[in-house]
């Protein structure tokens, strides 16, 4: 294939730089979680973690991104998912399309996602951590009906479902630990965020498959974006391609694959809960002409009925609330809806809920 469908072609200013010398992200902090993982089971975090909490706080503030090692997720569980995912994506399109996502149930396989109205060079398979999950029936603000979303598992490969279900249990434990560390780093009780995720969290896991691309200088695996949820726990293979926009100078920095590490990033919801103390940072994925790449993000999201707003404890006269509350469920389905059509307007973003300075002052 010499020619690339124009739907994939990025505007000049968003194309990757000549790929010869991407800036490697030595700067993205690497955090060792052994001290946390040793705390038993579902118990909340206790004392003695000050250094770790400070590292997580600094990384969240300066980068919005960090990597973790000794995180407690058994590597063979991720390997099983990757192997099954490779089998799945290797099939002909018509097989994969048997579990294609549709507007009624946006889980399963999808090959034509758009980010900022440009098509991504990737295929995905999404599944919910809670199956089924309650979601708003409509994006319209006055419609209070709820509906159930359910997973769509393919017949082939038969081991995909069990591998995925086994894996998400492990990553969920890690996600809660990270949430606790972030709460502590903001001076909050470690379980401050838990209530938002109890009963009906809307977390989903995505299997990302990036095929080799004949025009890696024109297209992106995923266009620049911020993650809309609370926290993302991402596994990437050893090919590399994730780039993070460095806060200090706006430079795109490549995140070097680190064996057995997870990449963690603060999403828009933590940005709002923290009242801008932490920021959700833009990132994108570069593709290449030789190698396929896999990644597995776990998008840790609260229940659909949660109204997202700056936490009371972090708001004061000196530091007024920067956002008006918004419904997470409505936000999420408005986003999903836009993936099915090219919109003339900008997709829904948290900055649409930002209060003007005069209101934030009052
Ligand atoms: O593939 C990656 O490394 C990141 C993917 C990503 O940012 C996303 O799916 O939101
Ligand atoms: Fe992302």
Automatic annotation (TrEMBL):
Keywords: Iron, Metal-binding, Oxidoreductase. Residues 201-302 form the Fe2OG dioxygenase domain. InterPro entries: DIOX_N (IPR026992), IPNS-like_FE2OG_OXY (IPR044861), IPNS-like_sf (IPR027443), Oxoglu/Fe-dep_dioxygenase_dom (IPR005123). GO terms for molecular function: dioxygenase activity; metal ion binding. It holds the Pfam family DIOX_N. The keyword Secreted does not apply. The keyword Transport does not apply. Belongs to the iron/ascorbate-dependent oxidoreductase family. This is Fe2OG dioxygenase domain-containing protein. It comes from Trapa natans (Water chestnut).
């Amino acid at each position: 294939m010499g020619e690339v469908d124009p739907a994939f072609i990025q505007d000049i200013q968003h194309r990757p730089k000549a790929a010869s010398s991407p800036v490697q992200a030595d700067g993205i902090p690497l955090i060792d979680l052994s001290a946390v993982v040793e705390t038993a089971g579902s118990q909340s975090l206790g004392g003695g973690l000050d250094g770790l909490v400070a590292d997580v706080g600094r990384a969240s503030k300066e980068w919005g991104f960090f990597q973790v090692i000794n995180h407690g997720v058994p590597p063979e569980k991720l390997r099983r998912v990757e192997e099954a995912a490779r089998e799945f994506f290797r099939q002909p399109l018509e097989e994969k399309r048997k579990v294609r996502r549709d507007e009624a149930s946006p889980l399963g396989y999808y090959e034509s996602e758009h980010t900022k109205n440009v098509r991504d060079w990737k295929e995905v398979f999404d599944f919910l951590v809670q199956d089924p999950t309650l979601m708003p029936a409509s994006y319209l603000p006055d419609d209070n009906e709820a509906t159930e979303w359910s997973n769509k598992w393919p017949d082939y490969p038969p081991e995909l479902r069990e591998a995925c279900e086994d894996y998400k249990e492990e990553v969920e434990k890690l996600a809660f630990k990270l949430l606790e560390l972030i709460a502590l780093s903001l001076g909050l009780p470690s379980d401050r965020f838990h209530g938002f995720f109890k009963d009906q969290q809307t977390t989903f896991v995505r299997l990302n498959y990036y095929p080799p691309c004949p025009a890696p200088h024109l297209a992106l695996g995923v266009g620049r974006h911020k993650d809309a949820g609370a926290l993302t726990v991402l596994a990437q293979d050893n090919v590399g391609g994730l780039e993070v926009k460095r806060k200090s100078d706006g430079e795109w920095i490549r995140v070097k694959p680190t064996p057995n590490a997870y990449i963690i990033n603060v999403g828009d919801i933590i940005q709002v809960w923290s009242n801008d103390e932490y920021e959700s940072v833009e990132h994108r994925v570069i593709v290449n002409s030789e190698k396929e790449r896999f990644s597995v993000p776990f998008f840790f999201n609260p229940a659909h009925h949660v109204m997202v707003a700056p936490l009371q404890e972090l708001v004061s006269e000196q530091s007024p609330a920067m956002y008006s509350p918004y419904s997470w469920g409505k936000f999420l389905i408005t986003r999903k809806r836009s993936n099915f059509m090219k919109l003339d307007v900008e997709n829904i973003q948290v900055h649409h809920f930002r209060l003007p300075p005069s209101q934030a002052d009052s």
